[in-house]
Amino acid sequence: MQNDKLKQWDHDHTFAQDQRRPGESRTQIVIAITAVMMGVEIFAGLRFGSMALLADGLHMASHTVALGIAAFAYVYARRNALNREFTFGTGKVNALGGFTGAIVLAVFALYMAIESFVRLVKPVAIAFNQAIAVAVLGLIVNGVSVFVLRVKDDGRDHHRSNEHSGRRQHDHNLKAAYLHVMTDALTSLLAIAALLAAKYFGWIWIDPVMGMVGATLIARWSYGLLGLTAGVLLDRQAPEELRKAIRDAIERDGDCVVTDLHVWSIGPEIFSAQIALAADNPAAPDEYKSRIPESARLVHVTVEVHVRGR
Predict the structure, then answer these.
(1) Residue 289: which CATH number?
(2) Measured distance CA(290)–CA(296) in Å, rounded
(3) Which of 48-52, 175-179, 242-246 shows the lowest mean pLDDT across its residues?
(4) What is the count of structural domains for the chain?
(5) Is this model's pTM higher than 0.85 or not?
(6) Which residues contact 306 (CB under 8 A, 6 or more apart)?
(7) Do 258 and 147 share a domain, yes or no?
(8) CA–CA separation, 176 vs 149, rounded Å?
């Protein structure tokens, strides 16, 4: 009987993390496409003696591994959603997958910069016709992958807006996968431009220069994603707009003052909160919780109530 009375306060910490996310299926499709193109480029590079194609094939191999990390993160988060060893569920596995993918991007950018510098000093012979053909094919394949990752679900893409603050929340894992295929598309496009210029104008130097440009852009994307996901992993406070909306909602009747407020992300579009407040005639914590709008998407909210002046 006692247990029955406590059931209303008992809850799990899945917060919908046990559900298959749309990005999971899309990432798996892109992995298959990327793996096939990787094999084609590596084979073509060895067959035609093109170091450019071989390097691009190896680059796609690194992205296949990175996308595999993203896919693993989806499956791991879903299968462990009910594991109570995770204090607030497995929502942050998504951010961890994105953070890992960003590191792979940074390593690849460094590799591209070094390899481009070496080729600038010591140019290599390129089989232009074959290299251009495979680069064009790679661009088409990458374009398809970009489309797959950007396709909308139920009228919404993977960038969703919060009506309170106007901020955009991300599936960090899907964003990492998206940035990987975008870098693939970018390197294919730069390779085509460089190969055409080298073939028709004799500008052999432009190939490594384009590589350096690509490395710089990839490094910028990686830096942005690292900052975004690191903030989630380190429990950075939620945006000021959201915190202000919560504070204003609780203090709206003027009968209390919020003295301490912590709001942090525990998964895609999911926030937890710890709130301390003081009031002359304090109500029950549930009263103050009920004032928080559902659009704030808060879960596992803890409210600590103090009598003002004590």
Answers:
(1) 3.30.70.1350
(2) 12
(3) 48-52
(4) 2
(5) no
(6) 259, 276, 277, 278, 279, 282
(7) no
(8) 11
